[in-house]
């Protein structure tokens, strides 16, 4: 039997990163490819204790269907955490999702028609492109520099009628860059003036190495922003608990779309997350993640300084999990990857992170899952390879 696939399904392709990850599972490969958080940070004891408490004290609601919007106490906790001096988040605006990836999927389904204009950074998160592309938008790639999107490059035509702009202000996947305050203010001004909806995807916001935080776009223009958060990078991704905070009219539609997708995020995992975080656990846990990531980032930057040849440039992230590399012009990182894998080193080529015209001489390095000695070895091998390729 050969089923006739929908046109949408025919256009689906597998995530390039997931395909690469399969190859890099071989233990001899030093992989800077995965976007996975470090398992050294998983609070196993805490999750075990939470699970035991829940199954002892509230087994029925934990194992029963629940409301589509999510577990009320978790929604209240999320709302309180995102309420600032000037902006109060109402728990009614929170929708708990099955990872923030589901929030991206629901936003695609509720906001994009075939041909709708969607503004994205250059480059941007590949998983968002995958989620949105099912609805066949026309992407407008906003030119971006090390401080994020360059809004003055947008024309009135780009802005008018665009369904939303997708933006990652903190330690972006894939570049690791953070949008500074002035650029955030400029973005808020442009969005409010143009009546533009902004999707603010923020799974790495808590992972600033120094612990400082810049105001969210949500706090600057609450009515214009759908904020996406996640417990994947601060607790564990396997629980699949994320959330969105949306203005009411859109929230209602997102709830309906979620009902169609999976009825609700698992009652059990939502309660585990709430039980883990309710007493301020993250206030002591997150600093340990930041410190581990800061150290590994430092090790990688020092190794790159030592081993990467002239003509290669990269950024120095202030948080998060990624470093973005520009190879000499003309070099193609997809071709480089084939040769790197033969030498047991892996990274993710930059091209799939571009919605339109790819910059093929770019790549993403993730440092958080690799111990320091392997970071040094892997970067030395990669540096030698790039040197050989740029001479050759
Ligand atoms: N947004 C960004 C920018 C990400 O990097 C990721 C995870 N790689 C996600 C969303 C999805 O995360 P999750 O579904 O685990 O919350």
UniProtKB/TrEMBL annotation:
The keyword Phosphoprotein does not apply. One of its GO terms (biological process) is alpha-amino acid metabolic process. Keywords: Aminotransferase, Pyridoxal phosphate, Transferase. The keyword Ribosomal protein does not apply. Residues 35-382 form the Aminotransferase class I/classII large domain. Its cofactor is pyridoxal 5'-phosphate. One of its GO terms (molecular function) is pyridoxal phosphate binding. Homodimer. Belongs to the class-I pyridoxal-phosphate-dependent aminotransferase family. This is 2-aminoadipate aminotransferase. It comes from Steroidobacter agaridevorans. The gene is avtA.
